[in-house]
């Protein structure tokens, strides 16, 4: 019986092979299933605009809802996308860990420590509602934006008060000055100053080009703006003087750290000096690209450079972030 | 079988009896086809490589006049030191840009460089956006103008990074050619001459890539290719002469090869086919087959002469033809059938290769199966030698090894060892890549000028090769809708995650850049407008001062259809398959209301289409080629077992070759597929001769022992196998000196194929035949060891009785 079965199997086997080949010819179609394209830490199109530092924690925000977080002074990073993936313009963090992120059309996200993000919407103009900058100054959050938008928020970011200037002017940047002064760098060369916690504002016009940022160290303040304009004040902002132009590029930010002043801006513009009245030197540390850099943040380790490229300026070098990529 | 044998005997007798008529007919037809050959068109045609019914190709053809560049050439002008913003270097860019207008077939509207009208500087002013050419018609003449140009380049993301590298050390010039005017053999030398005439060669290095340049290199090496082909043919003939020691053993295979080639190429020319230099390897394989069949005839003729003492050469020639008609025709039908399976792949080049290849193979039936015996019948001194050097010992050593295997118990180990070896090779073979498997072009060597230039451009720029997806809106201004532009940005962002994609560009990138410029160059405003109207206004700003066709690359004039162009760093099969998968995935997960997204256009779109076809059809083509072999055997031997038995050598040679391809990184491409299909037929030819010789012997000597039949087969047909396999393999080694990597690799592949199939037919098939004793071989035997088909699996355990010389 077994030999008969074997015989039949031997007879059938060739036809099974032939049938298998015919089946393969007609029905087997290979397919591909590559690994998923997960969200990388950085994307080529990323554009970052602002950051915040608290101890060794660093946060950086940018387009497409991107929020980068490092808990070890930039050694390792985590990326998250805020809901709606809209463009995030600025971030501020209070000493208690309250975070506030602002974006376009009055959008705001707030978060305490590791709690969930809470979405708020500030009332802004229908014509233009981009919120340009948020800062935590003297126990309160301050937000500025298009169409003269100005908001003050409580320390827990739950209560927001509109202090709008009711004017079609783009408020670019808000900063603390000397003796509790508040300063706003704005369009048309305007520098706004409040000595009473934001209730009233005085305006100084420094030329006609937009001012993009300012920074005070002791009583010395420097404001920077479009077309390479730099203004300096040695008396806490009472008087401003324009410095001779050392670049024609738009300048987006200025910072002081350990006695050295740095400014950055469009097309790889990066300058530094120990004496801001005199010689500003172009600085091109290895790795610096020719894209824009929008923000300089002084930290214990150096100055964080934020723009299309991220990195840490320390000594004469630029350490590109994130290092693991 | 008797019917077939009778017909074969009659045919053989008729051919020899009317040998003059046969010779005259063949001679006249050959002469006719030779005259036709003057019109042979030797060149590569882009349209031949395009599967015209594939959806990607339809997208490409529909939009090739706007979004695509089928024949793009990219020239890199790289400063040897510093950046490009120097008079001498910018003047060189201008010189090349102007000079390109004189190149044959150029589309003058598609020359893009810093010195052309197409690249613009975008300035925001109180009146709006001002756009004007970056460096046309005049070069910057002052330091200030030079600085302005530099800033304008940096300010335009459609220039900075895409046409000027991010370190400002180089610039690209791109040019496209009209499809119907493309002649690779002219474009390449004309552009090369333009670059060679550089007056600032000490200050810049010039680099050149693009499909027309690649095929220009192939044309450039045409003389060398023909030279190597002739050299290897001469080498084969010399080796045949040395080993065969007769003029007939050298000249008759040459005649068989030449006649078959003239017939096939003549018919191809009459059919209006061009001859692609890249498929010269296929021509070479088939010529080698002609040699091989002719050599088998001559070897059998010599054996019969030796057996018969002082014979009548006409009778011996007739007997040779009669005895070898069956295996020869079986091998040729299997070869022709296998290569015809390539026709299933809907690519014109493969259709032509399949048709001409099948005709060529079938021409061998005339040139080797008929002509060689007819010419042999004229031999006057059949036992004379042309030279005194007898190198028979080399061949005898191999045959002694093969005979030892079948005589000893080693034959029982052949099956299991082969099985393990094939399993190992099969594991490696699964890694074979469909499409190109390496960076740069697999047609040229990795260190070739073209591939080095390609690598340099891919290092400095997002990628020298492109494909695009099309968004079809179905209504005017559909492409201005914010959600449509946002989709383009998100799609670009998603696709750029794939490491091999260097970047993407679309209308949305232009819109966000115009908006940024409008807001004092503030990067925070690099965003889309909130409405179709705002986006339309932004585009209108851009078009002030621009030429009407400036946006053609991105969107049509009524903003109904638009493209997203992806830049690739390589065109490996795996890269394109992943890109296709990811694009489909994104489209499925992100539907866009009112807009249909279509994949893919551009040169890489076509390559992706070809790869998809090869991937989906390769199993079909290979399985059907196997079926052809099985069917041929079924018809000739009337035994299903014969089909399976002869699949073994095919399987071994294919698996080994695929494993070699995977190991060497040779991808399965439009160029390699015909070689693979031919290899299926190639792998079985030798086995046909060996096995049929056993069968023939047993039909003549039914009382003979099985082992005697096997030993006789190895001594006769085996000698022909060793002779042809060795000489052909040695001959193809010359291909490894080719400047075209593809041809060198295919040469190695053919050599390997020949060697593996020869070794299989000498060392594996005889042992398997003796161990399994299939009835279709041993059915005629009256010895005690003749099994029936029903007990094929019974092993013969009385192998010791064969232990005699």
Q: What is the architecture of the largest domain in chain A at the second tier of CATH?
A: 7 Propeller
Helix/strand order of chain A = HEEEEEEEEEEEEEEEEEEEEEEEEEEEE
Largest sheet of chain B: 4 strands, antiparallel
What overall geometry of chain B do the principal axes of the alpha carbons give? elongated
Can you walk me through this structure?
The complex is a heterodimer of chains A (325) and B (805). By secondary structure, chain A is mainly beta. Chain A has two domains: 1-28; 43-321, 7 Propeller (Methylamine Dehydrogenase, Chain H), CATH 2.130.10. Chain A has one helix at 2-27, and strands at residues 48-54, 57-62, 66-70, 78-81, 88-93, 98-103, 107-112, 118-121, 131-137, 140-145, 150-153, 160-162, 171-176, 182-186, 190-194, 202-205, 211-217, 220-225, 230-233, 241-242, 251-257, 260-265, 270-273, 281-282, 293-298, 303-307, 310-314, 317-321. The longest helix of chain A is centred in the first third of the chain and has 26 residues, at 2-27. Chain A is elongated. Chain B has 25 helices and twelve strands. Chain B has helices spanning 2-17, 19-36, 55-63, 87-99, 143-155, 184-196, 211-220, 222-244, 248-270, 280-308, 313-340, 348-376, 392-407, 411-429, 449-460, 482-495, 507-518, 532-543, 573-589, 603-637, 640-664, 673-700, 706-732, 741-772, 775-778; strands at residues 41-42, 73-79, 106-112, 120-125, 128-133, 170-177, 204-210, 274-275, 465-472, 501-506, 561-568, 596-601. In chain B, the strands form four sheets. In chain B, strands 3-6-2-7 form a four-stranded antiparallel sheet, with helices on both faces. Chain B has a four-stranded antiparallel sheet with strand order 10-11-9-12. In chain B, strands 1-8 form a two-stranded parallel sheet. In chain B, a hairpin with a 2-residue loop joins strand 4 and strand 5. The two termini of chain B are 33 Å apart. Mean pLDDT of chain B is 86; it is low at 785-805. Classes of the chains: A mainly beta (325), B alpha+beta (805). Chains A and B meet through helix 1 of A and helix 5, helix 16, helix 19, helix 20 and helix 21 of B.
